[in-house]
Amino acid sequence: MSALEVTFVTSGRTVWSGQAAQVVVPAADGSMGILPQMQPTLAVLGDGQVRIIDADGSVAERTVHGGFVSVDSDRVTIGVDDAELLESDH
């Protein structure tokens, strides 16, 4: 099973980096799910939650207000100004 190589960054730090089975982002025109072998994509993000789901089902979730996501050859880059930790994360 292939995996996504995810890099999630703000203007000042790396929020999350590693392999994931799926990523869900708040694209400006609606929620967008990203899976391995997806076509290359560049999208503007709106307000909402970025969810990174790894192979064992663990979920990392942050609230964002704008930014971008780039997908190419199973590499996902998420760039935002700020990413707020949700209460449910540990």
TrEMBL record:
This is F0F1 ATP synthase subunit epsilon. Its main location: membrane. InterPro entries: ATP_synth_F1_dsu/esu, ATP_synth_F1_dsu/esu_N, ATPsynth_dsu/esu_N. Keywords: ATP synthesis, CF(1), Ion transport, Membrane, Transport. NCBIfam families: PRK13442.1 (NF009977). It is a peripheral membrane protein. It is found in: Cell membrane.
